[in-house]
Amino acid sequence: MGIEIKVLLLFLWTLLFALVVAAAGSESDDGIIRIGLKKMKMDENNRIAAQLESIKGDSLNGFVKKYHRFRNSNSLGDNGDIDIVGLKNYMDAQYYGEIGIGTPPQKFTVIFDTGSSNLWVPSSQCYFSPACFVHSKYKSSQSSTYKANGESAAIQYGSGSISGFFSYDSVKVGDLVVKDQEFIEATSEPGMTFLMAKFDGILGLGFQEISVGNAVPVWYNMVKQGLIKDPVFSFWLNRNQKEAEGGEIVFGGLDPKHFKGQHTYVPVTRKGYWQFDMGDVLINGKPTGYCAAGCKAIADSGTSLLTGPTSVIAMINQAIGASGVVNKECKAVVEQYGPTMLDLLINEANPKKICSLMGLCTFDGSRGVSMGIERVVDESNVKSSAIIHDAMCSACEMVVVWAENQLQQNQTQERIMNYLDGVRYDKILVPYFSGNASYADYTHYPLLQLCDRMPNPLEQSSVDCGRISSMPPISFTIGGKIFKLTPQEYILKVGEGPEAQCISGFTALDIPPPRGPLWILGDIFMGRYHTVFDFGKLRVGFADAA
């Protein structure tokens, strides 16, 4: 009788375990793996932490050094190098899921990040970083499948860093087990960035070309070890803040319940990030002209916001009424060079060469490039802070884009000259700032407003929460199709009631050649559009999220 009871209890325990595993998200009868994602809305603690990091460090530093390496090295991620990747902006909305490392599995929450390629988690050998004390730590001594590697690894971010060493172990994703996966045990996580994070580590889903130490990414081993049906994974990010479910990442295919209609696919143009060609950007349905000849973009699940070149982000922030930093360099460019720029445009000079013709930028073969960026790319001893302080090139590019856009909208030369003359001859600029002109006079000159909207790369731009319904849609052309974002989709709201703050989802990031200029379509875009990453056919697809 006792044996029968034990058998019954064993059966019930096995059944319960099976139900728990199934509920957690695993392989279904259609041969794909579903991983449920959790989300964390932005709160004041995260925002303060990010602001402190911005004060302490240069947020562009990681990007500049990374592209310096790409430009000058034929071997990416060589052993022994300190490879450098850009920090993801997790301060507004974090989407993270659970994995297991080791046998038996040790649980970790990770960001599934298509903008990087390494897996790292805190190590039990992390003794001096506060971040390690508030997150789960990997203990190699408790895993029967652990294999030592020991090679050092370091990832330098724009506002923080991690360092440690490589190890091998089994990695459990859903009910898949990837064997002998190389990953980083982080022994140092200085700063507040990871201290305030709700996740333990990062699981990169980018290409091996940008992998630190040339480590084989988890996704590659999923495919190589035959663990999935098709070499495809897809993201559904739930942007409904009232629902607890954060979304779902599907390995091996896509779930029809997550999207509506057909996907628009574009080929991957450069392996590393999931990079593709993008057409023009539209404000309220009208082309800006900046990407009329094409731009480069990446789909990045590890970036909360949507980033692009300063010149166009400033136009977008002006259109939506976002408050930027009063940019003296921009006003100086308008005052000194505005009419000359217009003359060159009217005489059909190449818009992309105008700023270099006036000596404000260098020309990289496609468009003007900040001399600060050029110096950082070419000289390793020059600090990346030169990019922030060398704003004349960005200001010039912005003014050219604005003037070209005005001409395309059939604005008369006289009308545009009136805008520029108002600045050049101090009809508005000096009187306004000296208190001798009204705000109504000032707002008559939209180019001055454009300078005020020029974003600071270290800060976000705020908007009036009460004006969201009147803001214009912002659209992106991908694969010949228009993908529109409404203000309710691109504005991030922090808090509730009268204390609520609203933040523009568009932030400036000037990435130098050869990788840039580059648009980063983060969670704001991927939340609106279900995104497919097709590793087998090297393409990215977008469809309306369901």
UniProtKB/TrEMBL annotation:
Domain Peptidase A1, residue spans: 95-543
Pfam families cross-referenced by the UniProt entry: Asp, SapB_1, SapB_2
Active site: D113, D300
Disulfide linkage: C126-C132
Database matches in SUPFAM superfamilies: Acid proteases (SSF50630), Saposin (SSF47862)
Signal sequence segment: 1-23
GO biological process: lipid metabolic process; proteolysis
PROSITE patterns: ASP_PROTEASE, PEPTIDASE_A1, SAP_B
Segments forming domain Saposin B-type: 325-365
Recorded GO MF terms: aspartic-type endopeptidase activity
UniProt keyword list: Aspartyl protease, Disulfide bond, Glycoprotein, Hydrolase, Protease, Signal, Zymogen
Family: Belongs to the peptidase A1 family.
Protein name (database record): Peptidase A1 domain-containing protein
Taxonomy of the source species: Eukaryota, Viridiplantae, Streptophyta, Embryophyta, Tracheophyta
